[in-house]
Amino acid sequence: MSSFPQRLSLLGGTGSIGGSVAKVLAATPGRFTVEAVAGGRDAQALAQAARALGARFAAIADPSAGRALAEHLSGSGIACGAGPEAVIEAAQRDADIVVSAIVGVAGLAPTVAAFGAGRRIALANKECLVAAGHFFMAEAARRGVELLPMDSEHNAIFQALSAAPARAVEKVTLTASGGPFRLKSREEAARATPADALKHPNWSMGAKITIDSATLMNKGLELIEAHHLFDLPPERLDAVVHPESVVHGLVAYEDGSVVAGLAVPDMCVPIAHCLAYPDRVATDCRRLDLVALGRLTFEAPDEVRFPALALARAAMAQGGRATCVLNAANEVAVAAFLQGRIGFYGITDAVAGTLERVSGGPAPGSVAEALAVDAEARAVTAALLPNFAAKAS
Ligand code: NAD
Ligand code: MG
């Protein structure tokens, strides 16, 4: 891909990643045009994003928000649609690059709908791979898609993997910030409110991934993401806590060399890499200053205070539908925690309870199969939630 401008569609245009993509586009004038932008339910925010990006088409998933979207876009010349089919249309319009940044398994069908020969998919959404990684990777290969990891750890690892042939890889390590409860006792974390858990030390992100970072489920999801993206067995994947979030990922080779990816914790860096690959574009993000940082620290994750990591590892090792169930249960439990319906450890308790009940069975072989497993697991988790009701403090 070398002719400019390149046409880009942005799925999840009103979110945290969507905002960072907009920043990268603003810093690279003339390089990209925006074909389509899609969002969930906030018509005003979506219309604003579509106007700012100069999109040709805007799609909102919530069918009842269609009229408001049309009103907010009136006079702009931007076409629009509402409902899941409109989001699929946004994914399928003629574009060179599709950024997959819808949160949750809701991103699976639109991302797969965006697959096409020679098309680049810049993948921020990790739940696609956790829910249906085998199908997703096989389908991407079959359809001739160029898949680029936008998640910061995986982006760093993708870059580090170019240093040697895949057969020479001994271990791949992802770093985790440790989240807001890294230094809290289990008792303190157990009393955490949604507001406490939403205070991420290093990254500003959407609510769901911020809670996933507090439980460390995010790192568990990311191990599964790496397992599929890089075709690595679970035993070659590791996670370490690194509170500065400067080293994002490391690849250890059989000769003892370790190639790591470093950058300031700003999603504009992996976004710019994915959009410009294999070229580079200049970003205006803060530069890494190691002397100002002084030191970088690392520690082992505490699986007693953060049981999510072991749950995700067990689901990955079990294989089949287990990771799809893990993801669905986690989405339901995180939403319930954010609504104040369950306590902090209710999240991992609900995930564990769901896995115990419905994790056996084959890996989903299609989007429809993944969504069926997802729905079944969601119902089981929802029924378990009353057992983990938040205690009034
Ligand atoms: P967010 O909550 O800020 O944004 C989510 C976006 O998805 C919004 O635009 C929302 O309107 C849209 N959306 C929700 N449901 C939809 C639906 N059914 N159809 C269409 N659009 C829908 O989330 P985020 O933090 O930007 O994260 C997005 C994804 O990227 C997640 O999978 C997350 O794990 C991943 N990710 C995020 C970061 C980050 O720094 N924020 C880093 C790495 C990976
Ligand atoms: Mg990440």
TrEMBL record:
Pfam families: DXP_redisom_C (PF08436), DXP_reductoisom (PF02670), DXPR_C (PF13288). Residues 147-230 form the 1-deoxy-D-xylulose 5-phosphate reductoisomerase C-terminal domain. SUPFAM superfamilies: 1-deoxy-D-xylulose-5-phosphate reductoisomerase, C-terminal domain (SSF69055), Glyceraldehyde-3-phosphate dehydrogenase-like, C-terminal domain (SSF55347), NAD(P)-binding Rossmann-fold domains (SSF51735). Residues 262-379 form the DXP reductoisomerase C-terminal domain. NADPH binds at T14, G15, S16, I17, G40, R41, N125, E127, G206. Pathway: Isoprenoid biosynthesis; isopentenyl diphosphate biosynthesis via DXP pathway; isopentenyl diphosphate from 1-deoxy-D-xylulose 5-phosphate: step 1/6. It catalyses: 2-C-methyl-D-erythritol 4-phosphate + NADP(+) = 1-deoxy-D-xylulose 5-phosphate + NADPH + H(+). This is 1-deoxy-D-xylulose 5-phosphate reductoisomerase. It comes from Xanthobacter tagetidis.
